[in-house]
Amino acid sequence: MKGWSFNQALECWCIEDVVYTEKADVPQAQRLSVFVPKAYLSETGEIAKSGACGIYTAQNAPVIFENNAAGYMEMTNTHPGEERFFGAPYLAQGMVYVTCGCRGRSSKNAQGEYVGKAPMTLVDFKTAIRFLRHNRATLPGDWSKLVSVGFSAGGAMSALLAVTGDHPDYDPYLRANGAYMEESDAVYAAQIYCPIIDLEHADMAYEWQFGADPENETSYAGPAETMTPFKKTVSQRLRRMYVEYVNRLGLIHPQTGEKLELGEDGRSGAFYEMTMRRLGDAARLCGELPPTNLDDDVLHRRRRMKACTAFDRLDEQSGENELFGNSVQNTAHFSLSVAKAVQSVAEEFPEEAAALADGWAHCGDEAFQKRLRLLNPLAYIRDARGKKAAHYRIRVGADDADTAFSVSMTLAVMLQNANLGTVDDALVWRQPHCEADVPGQIQDWIHHIFEGQGA
After folding, report:
1. Angle 64-69-73 from CA coordinates, rounded to 5°
2. Tell me: the pLDDT tens digits for 369-386?
3. What ranges in 96-149 are assigned the alpha helix state H?
4. CB of 211 within 8 A of CB of 235?
5. 193 DSSP β-pair partners
6. Phi and psi for 186 in degrees, rounded to 5?
7. How far is CA 19 from the centre of its chain?
8. pTM of the model
9. 260 in Cβ contact with 266 (< 8 Å)
């Protein structure tokens, strides 16, 4: 506690760059910082139990746990003044704010081994939460009710923290990471921004939404590219497979009770109509005309950003390919659906398919499938083990082309169908892949879910 310092600009006490495990492989990344409103601590570092800020006190203030995961890369915790530091609005309204770093897909230990492959980013955040709870006696705030926040890969982490609290699947990894096993890593609520999830099926979803566009823009994901006949055929196959996948999920409309399915054309059925309604609601809220159909929206408003295939790339050069490597192999294919799509067009494109034939052989292994599951929140929603969050808020930019809109919609519907708690889901018009939101609304949501607990 001797590490506390005062930040004049934020009017808060802070303790920064704390390594949250004694077994840190990459200590420069496995760190966190805690920021506390001025009223909650005395100048000697003791909790001021009667200290109040806004509607909260040092004892019942919400604790915001914001992970800094991005692109499944190694990321440090953030600091005031940096682009990804979002603590100020929370602190101003009496909330405790934590920012946490993590290992990522390229992380190596001192021996040169890869130590950040799936599921280590999530394991780090679970370890950090357990570390904080182990020290809760010296920290202001209600540590029984953490609010997880993250976007992109961090949105995936936030969703996973919400549905895998204390789940035994992660215990071996947590023990190896030096976590306090007697503590809980469950969270009370999750703000999920633009989540990159369901990676096993993300390529199907992407081609279902963006397949009408034969070209992608130049972006961080790669250069502009026009689909070859081979890729165009793979895209068409993935689109058809997505229809089959959605119709197997057994989704039910939370309000009407009807089955959420897709027609054979992929552009009809209650699932498609719900997607368009979600997009239209975002447009109307900003006073703009809603798109008439999904293909027109893709071709004339938000074109595809990523080439086919977007996640499990045929050249094995995506961040997600790197995520599913191992301690000695940097990249790996991971999607059996992409493998199936390639195999299904082998007769028409024998040379292209033959060059890729062996790339997915390991994906059917039970151990590999377990690793995939550890990073897919959809796999844990219906799992009775572990602890689930009570509140979920999902926001995705309507200009986001990093993944398909339907991925986050599926997450929201599955959460509602499972009756896990409150679910607030929306697209935000004219917002890209980011913390897509209206300023102040997340704080209002937190106040609402903590209603009755204020000072």
Report:
1. 165
2. 999 999 999 999 999 999
3. 120-134
4. yes
5. 151, 395
6. -70, 150
7. 23
8. 0.97
9. no
Q: Is the peptide bond before 331 cis (omega within 30 degrees of 0)?
A: no
Amino acid at 135: N
Separation CA 234–CA 339 (nearest Å): 10
pLDDT digits (tens, 9 = 90+) for 90-132: 999 999 999 999 999 999 999 999 999 999 999 999 999 999 9
Pairing of strands 189-193, 52-53: unpaired
Tokens of 253: 């409309």
Nearby residues of 225 by Cβ (< 8 Å), 6 or more positions away: 215, 216, 307
Residue 404 main-chain phi, psi, to 5 deg: -75, 145
Whether the bond into 140 is cis, omega within 30 of 0: no
Distance CA 97, CA 145 (A): 13
The overall longest dimension of the chain from CA atoms, in Å, is 74
Terminal Cα-to-Cα distance of the chain (whole angstroms): 26
CB 210 within 8 A of CB 239: no
d(CA 235, CA 309): 8
Six token digits for residue 66: 């914001």
